[in-house]
Amino acid sequence: MDKLSFYDVDKEYINYLKQEEIKRRGFTKVPNIEYKNEQKFLCGIVLSINNVDYYVPVTSYKKKKSENFLIIFDDDKFNKIKGSLRFNFMIPVPKVAITERIINDEENGIRRIFLQKQLDYINSNRQIILNRSKRTYLRIINNYNPELTKNSCDFKFLEEKCLEYQTVLEAT
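The chain above was modelled as a monomer; its predicted structure follows.
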């Protein structure tokens, strides 16, 4: 597996998935990228699961669960957990809807160092991350835990919508 990187997802694509999931389920688990008309800082990694690229958001969530991966900085003795990857909220993404985040382009030096440390930790654990993402994917699509399935994105449905989105973009 290649080295992982951070990516941003196009706002229009996120909104499309949210609307489609709401139509189907009456609610959505696609992550918010806006709050009160302000762009939320959101980035994540992209993994391939069953030949589909999946965007996994990095969040500030700090509880250990089977469907997430905690990002830990050992050099901070007071607050070691610096976020997590939330696999139950990952979404399929077409390449045209993602942009790699170039950490060296971050204007805020503290933010740049923080992102680099997160990414280094993620890359040092990439096989664990890939395994856990695939396990979570299978648990959700096979409904092993109905409560988890309800509290997760509808992966198979969103894969269909991702393909439709990509097809429409390619046709225009």
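The mean pLDDT is 90.
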